[in-house]
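User: Okay, second chain of the day. Same drill as before: sequence in, structure tokens out.
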Amino acid sequence: MQIPNLSNRSLAFLLLIIIACVAYAGIQYVFFMNIGSIRFIVKDSTTYDITLKRANIELGNLTCQESCSFADIPVGEYQYIATASGRITINSSVKVWRGQTMEEMLESKLDVLAGDLTPADETLGKYEVRTNPIRLIDIKSNQTLARSSTAIGYSMSSMAYGYFLMFDANKTISIYELNSKKIRTMNWYLDEMPTHIKRLANRKSFVIYTKDQMYLSDIETGKIEEVRLYDDIEASPTGSMIALIRAKSMDKKQFLNLQNETGDVLLDIGVAGSPKTLQTNISDVASLFWEGTFGIQKSNGDRQLLNIK
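Assistant: Same drill. Structure tokens below.
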């Protein structure tokens, strides 16, 4: 079989046809295929872990700092979960349209209530919090008591102690005192923002909690120091202090020679010298509190008074 010879003009024409077909296929893919994209934009200067789902089937994961994208995905309805350390989890959905990039803004409030005491119903009945911007409202008079246009989170959990707290992105804490009706600020120099705060019953110090650490702040001086030996502390009005070491905190137990003690451990740390063991083999203690006597709050919310003065 003889192969015909093609002229240069014929070869050029054939090449143009091939290029045109490829270009047409590309245009069809970009503009007419049923695909689109999702772009996530972080607005609160934190890092999110994002899980994308469709019909409850996990499709992929991304770590997102400033922005990130799921590109060229089929059109349709998607669900996503965005988690960040110390912040409320975002559960939302987005519909992807053909040829479009859907933008989703990630901004979540601090998870400020986790693990702290619930304020009394009487306190909750007197005040409410409104957002955009965050402000504390006296319900009876509808008067704004405290307001911050830069706050990214707040805590009502400390109102049981007489304080409303607002957390700012510039690492300051605005503290509104219910009794004096004054606001003062506390600088927060650490890398992590607080998850919640409580005031010790001795009225001299705040305990400030982050996701993994605990700090003690002097009310008068504002000085903050890390509490490395304990998982929680509480003080009575007369100055007695107790501390909690949870069962899983083996490094703290070993440092205090308590590695042989089982379960959660309660210590008297208000005495001179080494801490004194008060109770052992307790389970699932979330925090300590003072209510006329010392008490423990379990992770399920149950509260138990202790026979310790």
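Confidence is low (pLDDT under 50) at residues 112-122.

User: Thanks, on to the next one.
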